[in-house]
Design a protein that fits this description.
This protein is an alpha+beta fold. It is built from two helices and eight strands. Strands 4-5-6-8-7 form a five-stranded mixed barrel. A two-stranded antiparallel sheet has the order 1-2. A hairpin with a 7-residue loop joins strand 7 and strand 8. The longest helix has 21 residues. Keywords: Signal.
Length: about 140
């Protein structure tokens, strides 16, 4: 039985062939060359999103979503789930620490040494802060 649409079959074949060629291209092309070194701002290194921020000073200039792993102290509570964190160099940054991440049965004071792990949240009109995803009490 002949098809009523005669020009459709060649168009369909051309589209399928194009799709086949395009779908193979991403699997073949991979970048394997060197990676650019992180940019710097003054004497403070601005980490790439893949690198770890280890001080409050770095977190204050880091890009959005940079991974932060910093040791220090939670020195005061600003409001529910928002605190001030101070690192060993004495620099401070606001952190957002959901109650669900607090260790059960353990009390944290301003003299309790902790390690926070989270992501830097970059803001346009206020300083960066850290969204904490894990907290560890250190000896």
């Amino acid at each position: 039985m002949p098809s009523k649409i005669t020009g459709f079959k060649p168009l369909l074949c051309a589209a399928a062939a194009s799709f086949g060629i395009l779908s193979v291209a991403p699997a073949i092309a991979q970048y394997t060359g060197p990676t650019a070194s992180p940019a710097t701002t003054g004497s403070v290194m601005v980490p790439s999103v893949a690198s770890h921020v280890t001080t409050v000073e770095q977190a204050l200039v880091a890009p959005d979503d940079a991974v932060a792993v910093i040791e220090g102290f939670i020195v005061n509570r600003l409001k529910h789930e928002h605190y001030t964190f101070r690192d060993d160099a004495g620099r401070t940054i606001e952190i957002e620490l959901d109650d669900k991440y607090l260790p059960p049965g353990r009390q944290i004071t301003d003299t309790t040494r902790v390690r926070i792990t989270g992501e830097v949240d970059r803001h346009r009109f206020r300083p960066n802060d850290i969204d904490v995803k894990r907290i560890e009490i250190l000896p």
